[in-house]
Structure formats: C-alpha cells, structure tokens
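Model the whole thing, not chain by chain.
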Amino acid sequence: MAAISQLDPAKLQLVQELEIEMMSDMYNRLVTACHRKCIPVKYHETELGKGESVCLDRCVAKYLDVHERIGKKLSNMSQGGDTEDLTKVSLPDKK
Amino acid sequence: MAATEMSEAEQIKTFKDFLVQYNKLSELCFTDCVHDFTSRSLKSSEEKCTLNCMEKYLRTNQRVSQRFHEFQMLANENMLALAQKSGNPS
C-alpha cells in the first residue's frame, strides 16, 4: 500500500478504477467457471438443487483460493523479494 | 463511493454490464438448449429450456455473489488485522 499512496490523486483513482474493473472481470469469470462446472446442461428446473448449491459454494472457495495462490506466485516471480505489495494490490477493498 | 445517486458514467457502465450479461446469457442458453435445426421456429421444449436456463443462471449468479462477498469481507478483515498488527507499515 505504501507505494500506491505516494501517487498523486489522479493516478490513484486510475489505479482504483483498474482494481474494480479487475475484480468485476474476475467475478464474471468465476461465475462462468462455476456455472460450467456445477450446473448440468439439463434445465428442467429453475431452482438450484442442493448438490448444485453445495458445489457452487465449494467452487467459489476453490476458485478464490487458486486466484490467491496464483497471485502470490506471480508476484514472487515478477519481483523476487518484496511480494507483500503486489498481493495487497490484488486484494482491493471493494466498497 | 459515498454518493448515493449514480453519475451518468456509472449509469452507462451499469447499462453496459447489463447488455453484456444479456448477450452472454443468450449465448449460453442457446448453445445449451437449442440443438435441432430441422425447423425455423423454437420448439416449446427449447423455449422452456432456455427460460429455465436463464432463471437458473441468475440464481447461480446470486449464490456465487453471496459467497464472493463473504470471502471479500473476510479478506478485508484479515488485511486490516494484519495492518494493525504490523503497526501501519508505510
């Protein structure tokens, strides 16, 4: 966070907008991925079945876990030592 | 995001998101439900399937959104606690 707060407000807002956009893109991918994996193509019902619901819950948890791990590894690779900052950037506080 | 009323840019963004969602839903439910091209018109089973598909997708989205926000809040709390523990590292 330290490096970001030193930027001027205009750039800070740009970074924040980028973060929000990134989050919503990630969210959309998450929904698509978990829908693919948990909801069978037979649409006899509009309600989510119990198994489907549980699958979705686990899918979200796993997806976010993977997302975090990959983020950590990526930042490790891209800047060797100082990993803290990038991981913090990739977990923005959504308002 | 303190302002309760949406700015024009935000409204446009919301509308755009809606349209993107709409197109995505059409594509998904079409590919999942319509397989028969021996007729021009939608069969009643195909129509039922597409409408069910849509509703189910929205429910899926809703549930994923709930879980997502739960994780989001947890992550924020953890970050806050971490920041406080390490005594505001600047």
